[in-house]
Design a protein that fits this description.
Shape: globular
Radius of gyration: 23 Å
Protein name: Calcineurin-like phosphoesterase
Strand order of the largest sheet: 5-6-7-8-12-9-10-11
Organism: Fontimonas thermophila
Order of helices and strands: HEEHHEHHHHEHHHEEHEHEEEEEEEHHE
Largest sheet: 8 strands, mixed
Amino acid sequence: MTATRPSAMLGIALMLAACGQGDGKPRAPVQPAGGSARCAAIAAEDYVTRTELAPGQRRDDARLVLRFVQFSDDHILDDDGQAINGASILDPLHPSFEAAQRLQEEYTDEVLNDMIIQVNECHRQYPAEFMIVTGDSADLTTVAETRRFIDNLDGRFDQMSAFETACVAALGAGASAEQIALQCTRFTGRGVADTQTPDPDPSDPSFQLILSRSLRQLLATEQAALAGRAADGSTDPARQTATRSPGLPEVLRCNAGPGCANVALQMPWYVAFGNHDGYLRGTVALVLGVNELSQLTGRHYMFDAHEFIDEFFFTQPIPGPVGHGFNFADMARRLDDDRRNDGHYATDAAGGSVRLIVLNTIIDGVDPRIPLDVLRNPFALSDGSIDRAQFDWLKNELAMSWARGQLALVFSHHPDLTFAEYGMFSSLVPIEVTAAELDAELASWPHLIAWIAGHTHQHRIRAFKVETGIGRNGTVEVPVQCKREGACSGFWQIETASLIDHPQEQRLIEIFDNGDGTGTIRASVLQHRFERAKALAAADDRCALYLSDPAAVAAAISEAGLAGLCLQGGIRPGTPGDRNVELMFRMPDR
């Protein structure tokens, strides 16, 4: 069953707009503590000052303009769903298909919750105004995974969902409780704790070769799902999650309060679309028949962008906002018949001195060259892009924020080098706006200081520098026509690692005005303390032998050990210049 947009959501949206909560107008910000944050969650590493865009360093008396938290690629994962109908036969072949059967995938909920605990403690000492998730909240694009993500941040469990509300309405007033449970509730994870698979052994060579790892984990998770295995090893078929989606694990099945392990985030939070939020596994555009087949397994995939958006209107009003950013989409767009154009929005921060512009960069596979929506472009994969209408909206947002004297920040899931033109099937995907065109537009505005993204699961920071009318970042090179001649030096491109993969880190970002014509973006790496998952994630990152690497396969046959063959380690954490950094920029001269 495909959920329709609930009328309740429209009523909420209208009510919020009437109350001034969804219009993007300035509101009183959190008053941040002066000086830079030094909380325990920040990685204990030296800060690197980078001066590619402006000389100098952060002054001791610099004024703090804004402090916020970035989460990205949290990938709340129904690992039982991986075993049943989410795992791909492509996973063992090439790193490009990596999405399933990680050693640490059992603990995505616990890792997110522990990160929330660390962020809350930092927020208590050094108040942040908001947190923003730059995509991939879920992994398999199921409604239950998205509900677990929302529950985790809300410090609640088994909250009602947009999906179930619409589903029950479609069944009609005469539907029985059994019918509602079978056709609606079992797809949401409500009322059912996640079953737990025994931890894999990273020292076992069969968990190092992706092919054998996939087979072993598929069997183990399927067995746990069928048997209703709990964290203590006990089993009960009544707890099975093979034919219904699981909710939060048992340890988090309590509402935030004294003695509850499920802790609510203590600041407003916003969400951006990621490819794993928009179509099956984030890499497959197949639509036809998937949810019909998944009636057997109790998984519902959200192929309609508004199914994802609607869920964020079923949340706690505090800290809010209800809608978690999607409520800021223009009212005309929210109420029109186009269900694909509400994923981008903008709002103000820092008392109106900073404009936050959030893009929707996913390619959902809907292709004007294919007549029916039930069939989508199979080459969409995980690449990014924006269409011309969203690009025009972005240009207008940049122009208005410049006129208002604001600084501007752009957020999206995909950074520029993961846009479609850099993908393996670029010629087969409709591209309306290239990454180079987007870079040039952003660089043409002196007040746009950073583009903040995720997707790559690594820490990486690049300067998009403008000199003599040309913008460059080492790969992209494009002419830039500055909106104010001589005032454009470029902007910072900040990518943040994921919570699903090693090093399982996020960021705290602070913006300072040095009072001398320069500013500083201080980006700090945040670390969780759920050690059980950390060890598995580190092992998973060190050793992943893919069949597409003939040299590694040949070496595996001829050598006794696999340790020297593992090729992925050392990439995702980034260099010191990608981690704890202070990024200098020129304050716009108006």
